[in-house]
Design brief:
The protein is of the alpha+beta class. The protein has 15 helices and 19 strands. The strands form 6 sheets. Strands 1, 2, 3, 4, 5, 6, 7, 14 and 15 form a 9-stranded antiparallel sheet that branches. A two-stranded parallel sheet has the order 8-13. Helix 5 crosses helix 10. The protein is globular, with a radius of gyration of 22 Å. The termini are far apart.
């Protein structure tokens, strides 16, 4: 058993101590991309395994994870720290990237990986695309990768039925098998931690207007359904584990208290994942034993475990701004973007982190969306909808977004790496208040098909320099300006 003071010390050491150094400009990226069978049939997992093997051979990655049948579902490059994996399902391919200072370097590696995989899939009628919801989710075999972790996760989320009306759960516990994000991690230092979490939380409603890319609902009335899926799943039974912070932090101590209030739902013992009903950390570590269950190869068995302070490493936070044990903040609220604009989110966040005080001042003084009776969480829930509320001056909202983009561009210019070219698509989105999801919805209503958007949002195009020159990436004598 552990008292609160000891727990707070452990949280401090895990999450705050890594921020006690000067912030670098290193950036890490993760792109989760839907895989689709263009014949409107389920994804052929045997093809996925063949393409994975070919990728590993082509780029000298080594396998780091194998499923129950021996197929590789995760591989990495020891030199760069880059990874290829299948996130929860073989219907979702994830590219992750080791940290670099220059976003162009990460983009060059992405182009090489993406082009190779897209070409291999295309030979067999399959494709990657850039959307936050797999457009063939209703067709695909939505089964988890056969591994301890993913089996446990789906089993845990499926147990929502045991809670009755404890929360307004949706009925898609397998949402992680078809939901895709674009995530960025950046260094944060202790003195900037409070401001970073507070300011970027206030930014979330505005981000929804330009980054939403996960249509959902019978009338497709939700443009960013990923918020809904996480919040109204068992992960959201404790609201402090998901979504936005419902308060403004005044100190690092308050952040520690907030983390302490989060819930734990799984640990490992002897190589086996054990899951149990979500329990707040204070209650978990104050308990002599916790009853959970694990998969023994044939079914689930009950087991009693004794909490250990090392179990803190199994805490899973799904906050939009997530403080990690690496001394970074991970921004998790952005849907996967169209591939031709896949770097927009990374550039946006990197520029604003460089210009944090300006962003803070802009949002603190704002009366366009704030100081009008709504907090950030309420605004985000309104702004992810198809129908935007008439109580706001949307021309003024567009103007606010453009000022924020100017701050992001100024921050990137200060970095001196030419990364501001990645922001260009966001100006068009901000002027029209048109996210990729809204653009798709309007196109579908005008006669375009989902197949059109699978191709369009999966197309890789050359990045245009400010001078108008295109930047074509060269790899092994081949020039890649586009692929479909």
């Amino acid at each position: 058993m552990m008292d609160i003071a000891a727990l707070d010390k452990a949280i401090y050491e895990r999450y705050v101590v890594p921020t006690k150094r000067k912030r670098t400009r290193l950036t890490g990226l993760e792109f989760e991309l839907p895989v689709v069978n263009r014949r409107n049939a389920p994804v052929d997992f045997k093809l996925i395994h063949r393409v994975t093997d070919a990728f590993i051979q082509r780029f000298s990655f080594h396998g780091t994870g194998r499923d129950d049948e021996g197929y590789i579902y995760a591989a990495s490059d020891e030199k760069t720290g880059d990874g290829l994996s299948f996130d929860c399902s073989y219907n979702t391919l994830e590219f992750s990237f080791g940290t670099e200072t220059d976003l162009h370097v990460l983009y060059e590696r992405f182009v090489r990986y993406y082009t190779f995989v897209q070409e291999q899939l295309g030979k067999h009628g399959h494709s990657l695309t850039g959307m936050g919801i797999n457009p063939h989710f209703a067709v695909n075999r939505n089964v988890p990768v056969g591994s301890e972790r993913y089996r446990m996760l789906l089993h845990h989320l499926s147990s929502y039925e045991n809670y009755g009306q404890a929360a307004l759960f949706h009925h898609y516990p397998n949402f992680g098998l078809f939901s895709c994000a674009s995530q960025i991690q950046m260094d944060v230092e202790e003195q900037g931690l409070v401001e970073t979490l507070n300011t970027f939380t206030k930014l979330e409603p505005l981000k929804a207007l330009i980054f939403s890319n996960s249509l959902w609902g019978e009338k497709q009335d939700i443009l960013c359904s990923r918020d809904f899926f996480w919040r109204n799943s068992l992960h959201g039974l404790n609201r402090h584990n998901v979504d936005m912070y419902g308060l403004e932090f005044e100190s690092v101590d308050e952040i520690i208290c907030y983390i302490r209030s989060m819930s734990l739902y799984c640990v490992e013992r002897n190589g086996k994942y054990i899951n149990f009903p979500p329990v707040p950390l204070t209650e978990y570590f104050a308990s002599e034993r916790i009853e959970g269950e694990y998969f023994d190869g044939a079914g689930y068995r009950k087991i009693l475990i004794h909490p250990e302070i090392s179990d803190l490493k199994y805490l899973r936070s799904f906050k939009f701004e997530d403080l990690t044990f690496r001394g970074t903040v991970e921004f998790r609220s952005v849907c996967e973007q169209p591939v031709s604009e896949i770097m927009t989110s990374a550039a946006f966040h990197a520029g604003l982190m460089e210009n944090l005080h300006v962003l803070t001042d802009l949002l603190n003084r704002d009366h366009v969306i704030y100081h009008r009776g709504y907090n950030a969480s309420e605004l985000r829930r309104m702004f992810v909808k198809r129908e935007l509320p008439a109580v706001f001056d949307w021309k003024a909202v567009s103007g606010l977004l453009l000022r924020i983009l100017a701050a992001a561009e100024d921050g990137l210019r200060r970095r001196g790496l030419g990364e501001e070219i990645f922001l260009k698509p966001l100006y068009r989105r901000a002027e029209r208040l048109q996210s990729p999801a809204r653009e798709m919805l309007e196109g579908l209503e005008q006669g375009k098909t989902m197949d059109d958007y699978i191709e369009e949002y999966g197309r890789l195009e050359a990045v245009r320099e400010p001078s108008g020159r295109s930047r074509d990436w060269n790899d092994g004598g081949m020039r890649y300006a586009s692929c479909g």
